[in-house]
Each structure stands twice: as C-alpha cells, then as structure tokens.
TrEMBL record:
This is Very long-chain fatty acid transport protein. Residues 428-503 form the AMP-binding enzyme C-terminal domain. Acyl-CoA synthetase required for both the import of long chain fatty acids (LCFAs) (C14-C18) and the activation very long chain fatty acids (VLCFAs) (C20-C26) by esterification of the fatty acids into metabolically active CoA-thioesters for subsequent degradation or incorporation into phospholipids. The transport and fatty acyl-CoA synthetase activities are genetically separable and are thus independent activities. Esterifies VLCFAs in the peroxisome matrix. The VLCFAs are actively transported into peroxisomes by a PXA1-PXA2 heterodimeric transporter in the peroxisomal membrane. The keyword Transmembrane helix applies.
Length: 552
C-alpha cells in the first residue's frame, strides 16, 4: 500500500550514514541544528538519525505550519539549514524572504518529481545518491547528555518553543513504552499514524523500532477509514493513539463493519473516560495504556493496569521517590496558592490542583532540560513549593488524585489550548488578529465543545466602530495560521471588561463561551469548515453543534 511503509533498519542505517557523511562534508558539526519539514516516511527517521551521528540536532517542524508561524519555528532554534519535502515548496516559497539566511535542502518526496521546485535549494536525494560512502562517520564524541532533537511545544504560555530532547530522554521515553506495555519484539507489530514531529509518534513509537527492534508500521497520515484495515493488512498487534484519534475512530465506525484486526493493546494519551469503555468494546481492545507527560516535562506517568480514565498512578508509599505532586492553585488562572509563609500546599484526595514535577537535574527521570531559548525555560520553573529552595516543573495542567493514588486529568490552564491534537498558543493568534484588524484588542481563548476533545479556539475582537470585515478576517487568518489555530468562533464586542487582570477577563469570556442563550446580542460567528467562512451563529446552529449534528 502506497501510504504505509515498513521500516527496514539496515537500509535506514545506510541511508543515515550517507546523510551524515554528506552533511559533514559540507561543514556541519556538533551542536549545529537543521530544521526538518517532511511528512511521515521512513527517511524522516533516517534524516535525523544521520544528523545525530555527527552531533547535529534536528528541529522537527510541525507540517501544518504556514507563514509567520513557520518562520517563528525555524528561528526558535538556531537552525543553519532547512530540509523540506518538495510537497512543501509552495509554503517555503511564501517565506523565502524571511529565511534567506538559511541553507535549503529539498527532498523529492515523490518519485515523479524531475526538477527541484526551489531554485535556491540543494537536491538532497541526488547528493545522497552521489555520496556512496555508507561507512559510518566517526561518531562525534556524543554522550547521552547531548541534545538529539528539538520538538516544539507551546508550554503553557507564549509562542511555540523548541524543547531540547537529549539522547537519554529519547531512550527513556521509548524504553518506558517498550517495557511498561510489555512489547515483544518477536511477536508485536506497532501501528503508528501519529506525526513524527510530535513526541508520541516521533519519540515513543519510532523509538521502539529504532532502539528495541519492534517492527513499526508507519502511516503517512492518520485516516479513520483505513485505520483498522491497515492494522489487519500489516498484522499489527499494538497501536498508538491520541484521544482525538479514538473519537474519530468511534465516529467513523458503523455497526455492520467487520473487524478482523489483531490489535489487542493500545497506548497513548488523552483517551477520555466517557468513551474509554466504548472504545474497548467496539474495537475488541484488551489493554489500554494511557500515559501522561509533556514533551519537555519531568512529570511522566503511565496507567498500566487499565483503570478507566486515569492518566497515571503514583503509589501512596512511593510518593517520596516519584516526582509529580498536585498543589493547590487558583482554578481559573492556574497560579499556585501560597500560604503566609510563602510555600504551597498539596491537595487532598479529590481536590483538583496543579500538577508539578520535582526537578532534580542529577536524576534522568526528574530532570528538566528546558528549551533552546533559556529565557523560556525560566518561566516553566516554580520555586519554593514544599520547602525553601526547591524547584518544580509547572505542567500547567489541573489533575485530581483518588484515594488509591490514581490521577485523572481535569483541564489545562494557561494561555495555550489543544485542538485537533495540536497545541495553539493564544498569543500567536492574538498577534495575528490585531495585526490584521489594526485594533489593539483581541482576546483568544479555548472553549469546550460537547463531544470534542480539547478546546475550540474563540476570539473576542473589540470593534467599537463596526469596522470589522468578517469575510476578510477569515481569509487573512487562513493565510497566516495553520488550520487548527484559526478560531472556530468569533465574538465581536464593543469593549473588553476593564476590571480584573487580563487573565480574569479571559476567564469571564471563556465561561460565556459560544452560548447563544447567554450572549444574545447577535455578535457571534462560527467558522464553516466547508467554505472556511464565518457565518452568524444562530440558535439552530448552536443546537446542532451541542448535539453533535454539526462537526467543527
Ligand atoms: C500477516 O500474517 C499472515 C498470516 O501469518 C501472513 O500470511 C501475511 O503475509 C502477513 N502480512 C504481512 C504484511 O506481513
Ligand atoms: C504585522 O504586519 C506587518 C506588515 O504587514 C508585518 O511586517 C509584521 O511582521 C506583522 N506582525 C505579525 C506579528 O504578524
């Protein structure tokens, strides 16, 4: 089948050696970094593997990015070069002026391509064919503490940041998946339809094949209608998910469909308690391993015994060795609550609070290495939590613990939200709206939509003089933002409430959401997926959305 490929390790090794030798020959050296913009394919792994052999760090770029967001990511880690697939050439052309200082390497990602699209780029495939040297390069004195990859995350605030993934971190993460889920390299085959630029697909799933030899079937792009057919065809026994995938699979399932796949285990992040059992029953899954952990964080957990809805387990007696704890916080802003003495308090059983992970740079599992930008690293560290002088990684997530020590995810605080499996940084969207409208005030936040995971983006735009052209706004946002970041709802307001901090204003707006019965002034719009235009949000459309008859 054309869209999936079985990763063949020795071919991959030769490929990566050629790539390493080529980049070495043109002067790349340890500590340099190269951005990689390519769809899922075996060569994706070969490219970063090759770069790592000469100590060069690959920055894995989200393939949905366009325009300013793409430029931002390319510069967020100091990349000397950019490797991109030919299918991205139009997107690269649009930013050519901004990235003129960066060396371009075009990778022909389709056999029918004769000529390069980009006149300035070097033909990477051709260079690799010319470079017959498959002898491994002399490995640079790489150590486990050296950086291997940059994987972008939004953290909880600010623009996307390049999180540093060290070799040790990569090994730990894929090792955790391999051992905790009891994978067997002789009998198991893992199905991976998650993007390789995210940590679940690119670190956990890809790592079990690279480091532990479990075959992985790599899909170009997730497809709900092909998912189980692929699993059947390739004899997969395990699949990796994000919560959104589980929902799409359930939505695409018809009762008369015959399923003959052999998948008995799934592992991933974000499967909601409401659909957990239904997912198991519908698809005949025996074991679900739900895990929790930010790409860059130190508060990882896995729910290894299938407790419905839990993201992990911290044994009551093991608390002093395990990193993550839940502390009391302001539920609206996620700010930790400090006692008179200045410290924080742990939550009781059943009391939701902020999950934080104790930082201990000497222990791999508790280390927080941070981002390529050290200023951004500081904003994620909380100090003086339980004792004077301690330091914790702030996950920005609200969790709650039960009496047995299982933890459950509640909400994400801060200025980012998740939609369609991707993180959206509200400040990035706000900047683009303000720039487009020319007004100062636009507030972007996420709102819950029944039956959807994550939060849909909503923008409150201040328009005292009725100048906003909603049609142009849709076009403008579409050209500047990846589709998942374009606000699904727009609310036009005459002014923003003046009281309270910026965060509290957001909370107020967020509580009203897109509820036409609470906001009756006719100022609400919804983005129609079909024609990418904003339409007035009527109470009929509102009901369709809430009842799941209209998908966003
Ligand atoms: C799947 O397993 C069957 C039966 O063992 C085998 O005949 C088939 O070739 C396998 N498919 C693949 C793609 O390996
Ligand atoms: C705002 O628009 C100007 C002019 O079009 C552009 O130079 C600038 O980069 C834009 N800023 C953002 C944040 O998009």
């Amino acid at each position: 089948m054309e869209n999936s490929s079985l990763v063949a390790v020795s071919l991959l090794d030769n490929f990566s050696n050629r790539l390493a030798n080529y980049f070495k020959s043109i002067g790349y050296k340890k500590g340099d970094s190269v951005a990689l913009l390519l769809e899922n394919r075996p060569e994706y792994l070969g490219i970063w593997l090759g770069l790592s052999k000469i100590g060069v760090i690959a920055a894995l770029i989200n393939t949905n990015l366009v325009s300013d967001s793409l430029v931002h990511s390319i510069f967020a880690s100091k990349n000397k070069g950019l490797i991109f697939g030919s299918s991205f050439s139009e997107i690269i052309r649009q930013i050519s002026e901004e990235i003129r200082t960066i060396n371009l390497y075009e990778f022909k990602d389709d056999d029918n391509i004769q000529k390069l699209y980009n006149a300035r780029a070097i033909d990477l495939k051709q260079k690799l064919q010319e470079s017959l040297c498959i002898v491994p390069p002399e490995l640079s004195e790489t150590e486990t503490q050296d950086s291997l990859l940059y994987i972008y995350t939004s953290g909880t605030t600010g623009l996307p940041k390049a999180a540093i993934i060290r070799h040790s971190r990569y090994m730990l993460a894929s090792g955790a998946l391999f051992y905790l889920t009891g994978l067997n390299r002789e009998t198991d085959i893992l199905y991976n339809a998650l993007p390789l630029y995210h940590s679940a697909g690119g670190m956990l799933a890809a790592g079990v094949s690279l480091l532990f030899g479990t075959p992985v079937v790599l899909k170009r792009k997730f497809s709900a209608s092909n998912f189980w057919m692929d699993c059947e065809k390739y004899n997969c026994t395990v699949a990796i998910y994000i919560g959104e995938i589980c929902r799409y699979l359930l939505a695409a399932h018809k009762p008369d469909m015959k399923l003959n796949h052999k998948v008995k285990k799934v592992c991933g992040n974000g499967l909601k308690p409401q659909i957990w059992q239904q997912f198991k029953n519908t698809f005949g899954i025996e074991e679900i391993y739900e895990f929790y952990g930010a790409t860059e964080g130190n508060a990882q957990m896995v729910n290894i015994d299938g407790r419905v809805g839990a993201v992990g387990f911290v044994p009551v007696l093991g608390r002093w060795i395990m990193g993550p704890i839940i502390i009391q916080c302001d539920e609206n802003t996620g700010e930790p609550i400090r006692t008179k003495g200045g410290l924080c308090k742990r939550c009781k059983v059943g009391e939701p609070g902020l999950l934080v992970g104790k930082i201990n740079q000497k222990q791999l599992i508790k280390a927080f290495v941070g981002y390529a930008d050290s200023q951004a690293t500081k904003t994620k560290i909380l100090q003086n939590i339980l004792v004077e002088g301690d330091a914790y990684f702030n996950t920005g997530d609200i969790l709650v613990e039960d009496e047995l020590g299982y933890l459950y995810f509640r909400d994400r605080t801060g200025d980012t939200f998740r939609w369609k499996g991707e993180n959206v940084a509200t400040c990035e969207v706000e900047a683009i709206i303000s720039n487009f409208t020319g007004y100062n005030d636009a507030i972007v936040y996420g709102v819950e939509v029944p039956g959807s995971d994550g939060k849909a983006g909503m923008a409150a735009i201040v328009d005292p003089e009725d100048k906003l052209n909603i049609k142009e706004l849709a076009q403008g946002l579409k050209s500047k933002l990846p589709s998942y970041a374009v606000p699904v709802f727009v609310r036009v307001v005459k002014s923003v409430p003046l009281t309270g901090t910026f965060k509290l204003k957001k909370v107020g707006l967020q509580k009203e959401g897109f509820n036409v019965h609470k906001i009756e002034d006719g100022s609400l719009y919804v983005l129609y997926a079909k024609n990418s235009e904003y339409q007035p949000l009527t109470s009929n459309i509102y009901s369709d959305i809430v009842n799941g008859e209209m998908r966003l």
